[in-house]
Amino acid sequence: MTERSPVLSVRGLSVRFLMPGGRRVAAVTDAHFDVAAGECLALIGESGCGKSVLASALLGLLPGNAETAGEAVLGGLDLLSADERTLARTVRGRLVGLVPQSPAAHLTPVRTVRSQLEETVAALTGVRGRAGVRSAARAAAARAAFPPDHLDRHPHELSGGLAQRAATALALVGDAPLLLADEPTTGLDRDLVDHTVDELRRHIDHPGGPGTAERALLMITHDLAAAERIADRIAVMYAGRIVELADAEAFFGSPGPRHPYSRGLLQALPDRAFIPIPGLPPELGDLPDGCAFAARCDRADDTCAVLPPAADGVACHHPVPGTGEEARQGTSEDVRA
Ligand code: SF4
Questions:
Q1: Which residues does UniProt call coiled coil (predicted)?
Q2: Which atom of ligand 1 is nearest to the CA of 243?
Q3: pLDDT (tens digit per residue) in 136-152
Q4: Sheet holding 66-74: strands in order across?
Q5: Which CATH number fits domain 6-82+222-336: 3.10.20.90, 3.40.50.300, 3.40.50.150, 3.40.50.720?
Q6: In this structure, which residue's CA is closest to atom 1 in ligand 1?
Q7: pLDDT digits (tens, 9 = 90+) for 187-198
Q8: Does residue 53 sit in helix, strand or coil?
């Protein structure tokens, strides 16, 4: 799947925030990854690791004190160097469909779902005329499995699941080649999490019927169960850097993650070892010169004072060679090997 030409190609993406007093916060550093048509890449990591900043960079929604470097090419356009007019007219909604973190906040509270869908259809598609727009809005709702008899409801009259579907329907209207889902399962119970990610998966597996272009999905999440359920590949972010990029099956199964931080994330899950990673992530404004995970890592030695290069999908001087079965059972021999 990853051999297909990428829909999104990110190379050396970095984001720095310039703070009062000249301080710089390294929110994202040197991110490299592709997302192919028909593929879901899940970008995972703890809160504050930089993954939502990366999403904002792709959408041109960073605050004014942000500086970016590198490139993120989508549809022949570098999203990082595009001007605001291009981002507003070409990127948001048309090249990138955003499935938001909080659908209730994303939807306009005083307008019905139908009216918001019709407005988006009129803005993003070539459909004209009242009947055509109405029909296209109904079709968009159906694609997200939003029930037609709820179209005239306001957001506050919807359950969490239906609000999520309404937001997904809006994200799908422009038929964007990339869906960007930013923490789409936050605040949902487990059944709804499964349902939401299954629906997202459906939109890349069966984008819109025969003849429609394939979509790619970049899902940003701290929910590893959701990532395991939906992703083809996993990118793990720590302190602003992608420290591991792996096939999801190998990552969650065998041989398991190879970066000690990734291994720690899995071992912290209640249905695995339930052992938290000791310590806290470093401040993004005060990162060490070497590996940012060193203070929490039981494999650290003197070599880790030098920044580890990314090799074979993992940025670590001493990657874990263990097996998935050991990781599932939470044994630590492999970590110390
Ligand atoms: S480079 Fe060193 S400190 Fe960093 S994760 Fe690897 S072993 Fe641990």
A1: none
A2: 5
A3: 999 999 888 899 999 99
A4: 24-36, 6-18, 66-74, 77-78
A5: 3.40.50.300
A6: 316
A7: 777 887 888 888
A8: helix
Domain boundaries, the chain: 6-82+222-336
Quick check: 217 pLDDT over 50? Answer: yes
- Beta carbons within 8 Å of 189's beta carbon, 6+ residues apart: none
Report the share of the chain in percent with pLDDT over 70: 92
* Confidence (pLDDT) at 189: 79
Ligand 1 centroid–CA 226 distance in Å is: 27
User: Counting Cβ atoms within 10 Å, is residue 163 exposed (0-12), middle (13-18) or buried (19+)?
Assistant: buried
* Gap from CA of 295 to ligand 1 centroid (Å): 9
**0.85 exceeded by the pTM?**
yes
Q: Beta strand 66-74 with 40-44: parallel, antiparallel or unpaired?
A: unpaired
Q: Ligand 1 pocket: which residues have CB below 6 Å?
A: 260, 291, 293-294, 297, 299-300, 304, 308, 316-318
Q: What is the DSSP string of 136-186?
A: HHHHHHHHTT--GGGTTS-GGGS-HHHHHHHHHHHHHTT--SEEEEESTTT
